[in-house]
Write a structure and sequence with these properties.
It is a single chain. The chain is mostly loops. The chain has a domain at 247-451: E3 ubiquitin-protein ligase SopA (Pectate Lyase C-like, 3 Solenoid). It has helices at residues 20-34, 231-234, 248-264, and strands at 3-5, 128-131, 140-143, 274-276, 294-296, 353-354, 365-366. Strands 1-2-3 form a three-stranded mixed sheet, with no helix packed on it. Strands 4-5 form a two-stranded parallel ribbon. The radius of gyration is 26 Å and the shape is elongated.
Length: 451
């Protein structure tokens, strides 16, 4: 998920209100700034409360509205190209014929907005949350699921190349919308009106098109892999040259590269790696940058992941049998119900990840989640599992020599026949003392059968 920290520390509940005179004075200064004349100033209305304001026809190119409350405001005919609308609230706003090309709309709310004839070319409408103040949870603005356009009027929009991954477009009117090359993957288009819409070369993989109207829609070159759709309705669309995505392995290197760009640009460029299922056995990902990647239910058996950066990655229910993860960094990662039998995790880090922006150090660490993971026969010699949640995990016959398990949660964790020589535990919290753990005999390394 894309996140942004507001540097001012201001609360969204106390955004100051501007009078119409003050607002138009700031817009005049912005016009001077756009013209590169002396005395100009870029318009910055971040976190301001501007409900119902009238900015119709205004030149607001590159203006900053991050986290602003703009519900029911009027932007009809306004020019908002390259504007920063990150996590802004535009519910019920009038954006008819507005120019939003290349604007940053990540995490914005646009329920019941009117966007008929608006330009959204190359706009970024993916997920995004603005963290204001010091607490992450109670002061997060925006959306973790893409922009919410539910109930909006978007007929005739120019959305070529728009990034609308995971956007909520339930019941939205997109009649004759131009969405060529748009990324609508995993978007919710249930009940949407896509009649005569141009969706050529768009990505609709895993999109929800249940009850969507697609009569006369152009879908040539579109990708519909994993999409939920009504075949009887789809039959009335133009399906010429409909594409099927190639196998996962052939496209994966490009996805990894795009994810690296996404990480290095804080979500501005590239794309987060999200993969649900697929065969990536024996893939070479040594030293890969995969922080916050989603690789759920993926077969990574035998994969080479030595020194890979997988902080906050989601590997839930994935197969990592015999995978090589020496010195890999998995702090804060989810390995929920993952199969890591005989995996090599020597000197790997599977502990807590410190989260910046929190004032309370006790709540600033996100632990690795290995609940119900299978690590039977795995080699975790020298691994750091400090604070990890190991509840119900199976370490039968695993090597945990010199491993750090301080503050780890070991409720009903199985360490049968595991080698815990020189392992470090918190006082009274080791497997021999934990009431939920099974009998945990330590074996002599000399007695271990040779491989």
């Amino acid at each position: 998920m894309n996140t942004r920290q507001n540097g001012s520390g201001a609360s969204p509940n106390i955004g100051s209100v501007l009078s119409p005179q003050q607002l138009h004075r700031l817009i005049d200064l912005h016009s001077t700034w756009l013209a590169a004349k002396p005395g100009g100033q870029r318009l910055d209305l971040s976190l301001r409360r501007l409900e119902g304001c009238d900015l119709s026809g205004a030149d607001l190119r590159r203006a900053k509205f991050s986290g602003a409350y703009l519900a029911s405001s009027i932007f009809s005919g306004a020019v908002l190209r390259d504007a920063d609308l990150y996590a802004a609230n535009l519910d019920g706003a009038d954006l008819v014929n507005a120019d939003l090309a290349s604007s940053d709309l990540r995490g914005a709310n646009m329920r019941d907005a009117r966007l008929n004839g608006a330009a959204l070319r190359n706009a970024d409408c993916r997920d995004g949350q603005l963290l204001t103040g010091e607490a992450m949870s109670s002061r997060a603005l925006g959306s973790s699921q893409g922009v919410d356009f539910s109930g909006s009027e978007m007929s005739g929009i120019d959305g070529r190349g728009a990034r609308m991954r995971k956007c909520r477009l339930r019941g939205v009117k997109l009649h004759k919308a131009d969405l060529r090359n748009a990324d609508l993957s995993a978007a919710d288009l249930s009940g949407a009106d896509l009649t005569e819409a141009d969706l050529r070369d768009s990505d609709l993989s895993r999109a929800n098109l249940t009850d969507a109207r697609v009569d006369g829609a152009h879908l040539a070159g579109a990708c519909l892999n994993g999409a939920q759709l009504d075949e009887s309705r789809l039959a009335r669309a133009d399906m010429a040259a409909l594409t099927v995505a190639p196998d996962v392995a052939s496209t994966f290197p490009a996805q990894v590269m795009a994810h690296r760009m996404w990480m290095q640009s804080s979500g501005r460029d590239g794309m987060r790696l999200e993969l649900y299922g697929g065969d990536l056995r024996d893939v070479d990902l040594n030293d890969a940058l995969l922080c916050a990647a989603i690789l759920r239910r993926v077969d990574l058996s035998g994969a080479q992941l030595a020194r890979a950066h997988l902080q906050m990655a989601d590997l839930s229910e994935s197969l990592l049998i015999g995978a090589h993860l020496e010195e890999a960094v998995l702090n804060g990662a989810s390995l929920l119900r993952a199969d890591l039998r005989k995996a090599v995790l020597r000197r790997a880090s599977l502990g807590r990840l410190q989260i910046s922006g929190r004032s309370n150090p006790a709540s600033s660490a996100w632990p690795a989640n290995l609940v119900a993971a299978n690590l039977a026969g795995a080699d975790l010699s020298g691994a750091n599992l400090r604070g990890a949640n190991l509840s119900h995990a199976d370490f039968t016959g695993a090597l945990l020599r010199s491993a750090v398990l301080l503050e780890a949660k070991t409720y009903k964790t199985c360490f049968d026949r595991s080698d815990l020589t020189a392992a470090k535990w918190s006082p009274g919290c080791g497997p021999d003392h934990h009431p939920g753990a099974r009998s945990l005999p330590r074996i002599n390394p000399a007695d271990r059968p040779s491989s």
